[in-house]
Amino acid sequence: MAKWSVSLSTTSPLLDGQHEALFGCVEELTSAASEGRTLLTFHAVLQLRSYIEDHFSTEEAMMLSHGFPGRAEHVLEHRRFSARLSELMEENIRRDNSKEMIEFLERWLWDHIARRDQEYVPYLQRAEGKEAVPGPAQPVTGNGARQRDEGQDSRPDS
Ligand SMILES: [Fe+2]
Ligand SMILES: [Fe+2]
């Protein structure tokens, strides 16, 4: 079963806590489904959807405030996930597709957090002053130092 681990960390305690809670929701869902408790299973999916929508809002606001350039594409991936989850939930009313739903959730969460969410981590770290982000050079300021003409990046001469 997919679980949150430190290798998935975004360096934000808030986002990491939300990611961990999402894996917890899938665990609850899995245990309800394995016991054949359809109402409890559906309740667990509803809870997961509510948690994940909150998480998407937090994450999307964070990406905006940190100037993450891949935000639009990332948001689109969130929207596609929500649309697919809604389809699976509708289908769940007609037939028990909990196994398929769990597989989708586990795979998507793991892949998205391990790959997509990692893309914004350098921008969070920049805000914390931990690491530079590739991009436009920052001007040198303070102590009357003169700014270098070409900034501070390490592009090869062209
Ligand atoms: Fe996330
Ligand atoms: Fe995300």
At a glance:
By secondary structure, this protein is mainly alpha-helical.
Estimated share of beta-strand residues:
under 5%
Run of helices and strands: HHHHH
Molecules bound to protein:
fe (ii) ion
Q: Which structural class matches the secondary elements?
A: mainly alpha
Helix content: 55-70%
Instruction: Please tally the helical runs, counting DSSP H or I stretches of 4 or more residues.
Output: 5
Note poorly predicted spans: 137-158
Radius of gyration: 20 Å
| Largest sheet, strands/sense/barrel | none
How is the secondary structure organized here?
Blueprint: H1 13-34, H2 38-65, H3 71-94, H4 98-116, H5 121-128
Helix pairs in contact: 1-2, 1-4, 2-3, 3-4
Characterize the structure shown.
It contains 5 helices and no strands. It has helices at residues 13-34, 38-65, 71-94, 98-116, 121-128. The chain binds fe (ii) ion (2 copies).
